[in-house]
TrEMBL record:
<dbReference type="Pfam" id="PF00106">
    <property type="entry name" value="adh_short"/>
</dbReference>
<feature type="signal peptide">
    <location>
        <begin position="1"/>
        <end position="19"/>
    </location>
</feature>
<dbReference type="GO" id="GO:0016491">
    <property type="term" value="F:oxidoreductase activity"/>
</dbReference>
<comment type="similarity">
    <text>Belongs to the short-chain dehydrogenases/reductases (SDR) family.</text>
</comment>
<keyword id="KW-0560">Oxidoreductase</keyword>
<dbReference type="InterPro" id="IPR002347">
    <property type="entry name" value="SDR_fam"/>
</dbReference>
<dbReference type="InterPro" id="IPR036291">
    <property type="entry name" value="NAD(P)-bd_dom_sf"/>
</dbReference>
<protein>
    <submittedName>
        <fullName>Dehydrogenase/reductase 13</fullName>
    </submittedName>
</protein>
<keyword id="KW-0732">Signal</keyword>
């Protein structure tokens, strides 16, 4: 795992790392543990207070780093995102790394669950923390995406609505992951020259995250298969850690990474017009004022 953390110059600057929503287990906890082991101050943000506090305690115990904290955040509630951002900004003067890694939750705002938790909640959180990221630059935003984005089909006029069909839950998940790739691409374009960079990261097929989106009738097949054929959380954390700590990644801002290297996303994931439209429609869905920053042509 620590092979991904050889770039010590950037790592020494990681005073505050925010692992949002998925930090209490799986990939999120594995990433947080390694960054804490290397001395970073880490804030775990997750919905379940008991699990969040337990994860923070485990990481402090395992790493000897007392600077691992829990703060409550429910990405499925936009009110919770606003409250969390306000509390975080009051408590933490710096933010050098924001890792948007969603966990399982339940939507309360009328949007489909995967789209709100995987895209809208993180879009809102990133916007609310953007000034702090800029004032702490050089800083990074990591958005945990997936190769499942290749099956995504975003209908811009129906964003946030569940797709039809017998595989609606899985299609919804794929759509949200395509939104992750486009979000990172557009965020990077809008933040050129600010010292803030953004990356979409595919952790690989990890047992902890993918198969909860399969239909119930397939889960008896997929669950045992995933345990023996797919990556552990620690293995899935490698590319996230690489993008969090590796020096010299600034030219790759906006790119999609897998297996610790940049890869070409699908054609839809490279569509700059779609990325701009997704950004603008996401702002409207969330009731945000249009961003002052615009992409550099």
């Amino acid at each position: 795992m620590l092979r991904c953390l050889q770039a010590g110059v950037l790592l020494q600057r990681l005073h505050v790392v925010l692992c949002s929503a998925g930090g209490s287990s799986g990939i999120g906890e594995a990433v947080a543990r390694e960054l804490a082991r290397c001395g970073a101050r880490v804030v775990l943000a997750t919905r379940n207070a008991v699990r969040g506090e337990e994860a923070a305690w485990r990481i402090r115990r395992d790493t000897g780093n007392p600077e691992v904290l829990f703060m409550p955040l429910d990405l499925s509630s936009l009110r919770s995102v606003h409250a969390f951002a306000a509390a975080f900004l009051q408590q933490e003067p710096n933010l050098h790394l924001l890792i948007n890694n969603a966990g399982e939750q339940h939507s309360t705002d009328g949007f489909s669950l995967p789209f709100q938790v995987n895209h809208l909640g993180h879009f809102l959180l990133t916007q609310l923390l953007l000034q702090r990221l800029q004032s702490s630059a050089p800083s990074r935003v990591l958005i945990v995406a997936s190769s499942a984005h290749q099956a995504g089909r975003l209908c811009m006029a129906k964003l946030g609505q569940p797709p039809p069909g017998p595989f609606a839950a899985f299609q919804d998940y794929c759509n949200s992951k395509l939104a992750n790739v486009l979000h990172a691409r557009q965020l990077a374009a809008r933040l050129q020259g600010t010292g803030v960079t953004a990356y979409a990261v595919h952790p690989g097929f990890v047992h902890t995250q993918l198969f909860r989106h399969t239909p119930l009738w397939l889960q008896p097949l997929w669950t045992p298969l995933s345990r023996f054929c797919f990556r552990s959380a620690a293995e899935g954390a490698r590319t996230v850690l690489f993008c969090a700590t590796q020096d010299g990644l600034q030219p790759f801002s906006g790119c999609y990474f897998a297996d610790c290297r940049p890869l070409q996303p699908c054609a839809q994931g490279r569509d700059d017009a779609a990325a701009r439209e997704l950004w603008e429609r996401s702002e409207r869905l969330l009731g945000l004022q249009p961003s002052l920053c615009t992409p550099v042509e």
